[in-house]
Amino acid sequence: MKKLKVEVAVIGGGTAGLAAYRSAKEKTDSVILIEGAQFGTTCARVGCMPSKLLIAAAEAAHSASHTEPFGVFIDGKIRVDGKKVMQRIRDERDRFVSFVVEAVDSLPAPDKVIGNAKFISTTELQIGDHTIVTADRMVIATGSRPSYPGVWNELGDKLIINDDLFNWTDLPKSIAVFGPGVIGLELGQSLHRLGVEVLMFGMGGQVGPFTDPQVMAYAQKTFSDEFYLDADANVKNMVRKGENVEITYLDKQGIEQVTEVEYVLAATGRRANVDNLGLENIEIEKDGRGVPIADRFTMQTSVPSIFIAGDASNQLPLLHEAADQGKIAGSNAAVYPNIRVGLRRSSIAAVFTEPQLAMVGLTHQQVTEKYTGCDCFETGSVSFESQGRSRVILKNQGLLNIYGAHGTGRFLGAEMIGPQAEHLAHLLAWAHQNRMTISQMLDMPFYHPVIEEGVRTALRDLNAKLRLGSEMLNECMECGPGC
Known about the structure:
Blueprint: E1 2-11, H1 15-25, E2 31-35, H2 42-46, H3 48-64, H4 82-105, E3 112-114, E4 117-121, E5 124-127, E6 131-140, E7 144-146, E8 159-160, H5 162-165, E9 174-178, H6 182-193, E10 197-201, H7 213-226, E11 228-230, E12 234-241, E13 244-250, E14 256-261, E15 263-266, E16 270-272, E17 306-308, H8 319-335, E18 348-351, E19 356-361, H9 364-370, E20 377-383, H10 388-392, E21 399-405, E22 411-418, H11 421-433, H12 438-442, H13 453-465, E23 475-476, E24 480-481
């Protein structure tokens, strides 16, 4: 068996692993990157990029079929060519993946090791059946995978995860989506708008990533109005029936329904890929799900020489978070024991449905817990239903709630569903990271007419509730409501 001795071993060649490798390599040449299968990040292969390609096709189809309110009429029926939709998705997906693979191919060959890694001790890894690596420091960046009840495997190839969907060569006629979270909502709404019959089932009433009851209720109604969504479903049975899946469930009126779909999409969450790493061979502190616990500012685990980053850390499973964590973990692994606190940016998350969903800074739940027992925060709101620019472009659905602290007037966080929420979230995230007050945010320029004026409306509402500004005007005398 081959033996290697290095200063830093990075386990996993995805976004976090590549960031950790590059960061460590800036400080030492003695670094290897271990990948169990194929290089190419989750984002490029099966995540953010192919999903946005599906969403783009769905937006084109939806926009083309909803021009009449503008007085624009398209003669003839809008036709979706499923084969061409999926061909473009696969072609562009492969293009994005090729960029990642090309970057990895440019790395020195001795720095790359292919095979599944398993801890023998805190300083030793066995790679497959061919290599023993001894490393002074380690970075775990093994990513995550979809998680769903094992009994669903009885559905065979009719059970799919998002990885499988992007390999389709055509669109199906029907699908049941389990899990109205980020993945389920994005893919489910897109498939519906491309002509696929969609049934979406959830548990406990949760829709999207929200913790604010008002915003989540708005999201639930909005999506339920477009396609079948039961956020607290009672599915009694699900069995393979020929080339379909038969589902027996109680509908929202409590009436038993039996239907067949071509596929079942499991979008019920993800689990960190740490269960086959041999963590039982080292004494490392883990959470209730078996994931090593790490300091979010240094990414150091309870074993001082072992760091963790990305989806494997079970913190925030987002690409920009994985990249930041990887950079911190790799740098600290290289300079250990002289580790440093890394830059952790304000939290920002977006879901690319229509309307879009977004969260910034502290969530409603976190704000509520932080200020439990005192009336120390307020919520400023705006509805996009009457907001000027939103009505002009007929994207007037949504609700934005912004949280601010009494006394300091500090902006704490926000949850929203609305038009172009991805852009509104960036403005708010920058303000949050700069620790701005609501008054300071209101001093910033707002052009007219833009959707961002809705943010100003919510800020004015919040400022008044914090008793830091005058009462809200219900209407703008120059332009009407919502400006």
